[in-house]
Design a protein that fits this description.
The chain has helices at 42-49, 81-87, 92-100, 116-129, 146-157, 170-176, 195-247, 250-255, 257-291, 351-361, 378-390, 393-405, 410-415, 421-432, 451-463, 475-481; strands spanning 3-14, 17-27, 30-35, 57-63, 70-72, 134-138, 162-166, 179-184, 187-192, 313-323, 326-336, 340-344, 369-372, 439-443, 467-471, 484-487. With 493 residues, it is α/β, with parallel strands linked by helices.
Length: 493
Amino acid sequence: MSAIHFKHVSFSYSSAVPIIEDASFDLGPGWAGLIGANGAGKSTLLQLISTDQLPDSGTVSVVPSGQPPVFCQQRVDELGSDIESFSQIWEGGAVRMRARLELDPEDLDRWQILSPGERKRWQIGTALAQRPSVLLLDEPTNHLDAEARDLLVRALESYRGCGIVVSHDRGLLNHLTTKTLRIHRGSVRLWNGPYDVAHDAWNAAADEQQREYDNLKREQKTTRNRLGDQRRRAEQKDAERLRTRRTAVKKDLDARGAAATGRHAMGQKAGAKERGVTRSRLEALTAEIDSTHVEREGGGAVAFGFKPANKVFLVRYNGPVDAGDKRLFRVDVAVRRDDRIHVTGPNGVGKTSLLNRIVSEVAVPRGKVLYLAQETTSRDASGFLDEVRRLPDADKGRVMSLVALLGSDPGSVLASDRPSPGEARKVALALGLGTPKWLLVLDEPTNHLDLPSIERLEAALSDYAGALLLITHDDRLAGEVTKTTWTVGADGL
């Protein structure tokens, strides 16, 4: 039986930034979702399972031990030898898998111009055809249109080994998985149920933790006030005793002074004991509060600076749309200053090529246009960070505040030599939004973003007042932020 076992695993890239701390869990056959904020360590955890990374402490084991895990990473830039071998097998499971995912071996001759979604299907089809005991998928539905996504989901349903999937696709997680691993602030916890069930469970746990914390804070305040009252009463009694002794006549001191002094001493002793009990309780409450970590979701609303465009038409284009040296179709389109357009259609028909053509024809200052491409390479990510580091302090602060609002820690991002794809995407968005924009051209902007960040971006785009051209396979996002649909097919718009 296939399985994954983590026993007290810890890992960090540097001693100052722990990624995973004392993680223990066991997974058997079936799919588990892996959830966490961008940069939390999801890809690192998959690398530990696949042995691409070794833990600093603890043990990671997979069963059966003689079959290494197969790891499908987020990016599919290069045509690997495993994909080429898969395309050349004409018998058994390979043929059935290519048919199931509608893969044509002749497509590999034009790998460099295949859409990322088409490449992703080849990558995962190659992995499934190997029938691995442990399969690790990092954002498998990135770039996939609805039809390709359905093909992939049906193929993944047939897998019988132990699988972990990282995804921001809530529909996929709820349909495919039965357990959820959540990595948060270095801790890893396994929850029963798919994403929605697990999400409700950890929110309920956080709410209960918050209630307990609030109760402790209230008791701390009451106990501190009680201790203050006890001290004031003791001081008042001491002052009253002193006044009594000063005004008492000689015979009173001789006849009743000893008794009064005794009563006062007993009262002082009882009061000191009472204050000691109260003080001990206050110290215990303070220690418990200091050791209690209350979850508070980071991020917040994202505000886009905006000034209305000074032109009614931002783009008018009548001409061809090409992919490399291949003519796809011709278009006659216009984008007005308040248009909000969802560009949709199957993978590979030319949606990205259409956006590239439109951006090249924009008749407004380039500083008024934000173009976010579908993918950011490692070199792009480093370039974004270098650009931020070169900014004046005021501009840098504004950009990194946007990164924070999108849910990532600015200090950690700036200190990183290897930002995650999601972190790099947030930095790119933040750089582009440092000045008001008249036109946003976004090609799959939710790729690599965690779920809270997607929700914040959705809210921001809903409030944005300029023109928007959006390619996305997230139907919920498109429905919330666009008003018009351009459908691209084999014959164009």
